[in-house]
Amino acid sequence: MKKLLSQKFSIIWFLVFISLVPDLFSQQWTKIPGTSFYLNGIFLSSQNPQLLMVSSDDLPTDFSEQNIGFPYFGVGQNGFRISTDGGNTFSDPILNGYSVYNLHQATDNSNHWFASVRRFTRGGVLSSTDGGKTWDTDNIKCSGNFQITKIISKKNNSNELELYASAVNTDEGFKYSFNNFDECFTNEDLDIQSLDIAISPLDKNLMFIAGDGFHNSGVYRTYDNGKTWLKDSAGLENKRVLCVLPSAFNKAWVICGVDSIDLNKFRYGKGIYLSQDTGKSWKRVGAFGSTVFSLAQHPLYPKFIAAACDRDGVYLSGSFGWSWERFSEGLPKDSSVRQVAIPAIDSTKEGIIVYAGVFGEGLYKSIRIKTSVETNENLNISIIISPNPAGEYIEITGLNKGLQPLVSEQEIKIFNLLGECVLSVAQTFPSVDSGQTGMSDLLRIDVSGLPAGVYFVRAGDWVGRFLKI
Question: Rounded to whole angstroms, how far apart are CA atoms 224 and 207?
Fold first, then answer.
């Protein structure tokens, strides 16, 4: 009888375990043939979710370097290819002989496209008026030794097109034009080299640019089309910002990808940072220890955000960037993910589809992947556990409700599925990045000694769950 009860007990807990564990085995990626090995960008259309444009070369351009070297022989620079069926087939190369680093569809005309290109030793901008089918290669605009990395646009109050761009290999990394790049201007007061620039989806007058640290670092913002720039980025001190993403959920929310680089040019990944006050202050929320090269937000469901996290693969958030999970099964091991993109395909209960560019390995596409923590539009964030699944540690965000120290009476305990307390608050210590105050709203718990399985965290009346792998 005791043996029978024991077997029933084991079966019950096994069923509970299966019901709680995220479907990790569905985290699969498939390589998509038809592109070159070194991707420069993945570009999607918000109107046609099956339209995919991928720029790639046979030779690498490594944007992880501060002084970037570019292919200059005209050989192995393969322009971009178009797929109209979600990556199943690709066209022949367009702009063959050029390296294409960015493609942008103008906001005033869906057939008007701009391409940031490089040929031999000079970069510049080419334009197309037929949706990218043909390009005016006789007229390279905004040309120089520098390289434009990102082009964005908006219509002003007079319904005229305004173009803005970020650039590297220059200390004038902010460019703008009001006549389709026939003339290209800069703000000489902004001493910056930049890999990314973005306009808030919720306020066209609010623009951000990422400083990669070669001249100045941090996230800058402007409300007057780049005439004046503000930066008071508490929490990003001495960090290099590689990408910036204003939220389509909340105007005050901004996300960026961060690392740092020492005098010997060695990179140290710092992860994903979130600001909830329009870039005035920042806190780390995910991909700890990773260099984050790019961020992408779902065009239809802004709660979904993907991050290209170097050798740690792809991280995905289902909570507008507040919490993150790693989805890398099927990606090449020890290879660097540099680009991510999310097509405008409906989210289902199975999750969303993501594209990833792997440095030296080409293009990958996920099956539908789903985060274990998702929120709806009425987000009410309190306490978050990450990373989840966890390996060596977990970090609990939101216990402080600000900068005050943890309340001593607030017990934090971890229980296994048998209801046994396996860890308590005595095993916790503040995160390394605690800001200028010396205090942190992140609390780290060492779980390296726990066996693999599902665990519950209790803090007061709140209970959270994480998976130890």
Answer: 9
Give the neighbor-by-neighbor strand order of the sheet with 203-212: 197-200, 203-212, 217-222
Mean pLDDT along residues 340-347: 88
The model's pTM is 0.75
Q: What is the pLDDT of residue 410?
A: 56
pLDDT of residue 438: 43
Domains in the chain, start-ordered, CATH in brackets? 29-366 (2.130.10.10), 384-468 (2.60.40)
Report the alpha-carbon distance of residue 188 to residue 427 in Å, rounded: 51
Write out pLDDT tens, residues 382-414.
567 788 788 888 888 766 554 344 444 457 888
Dist. CA 439–CA 184, nearest whole Å:
45
pLDDT tens digits for 67-87? 777 776 666 789 999 999 999
Q: How far apart are CA 415 and CA 349, in angstroms?
A: 29
Give the whole-angstrom CA distance, residue 231 versus residue 189: 13
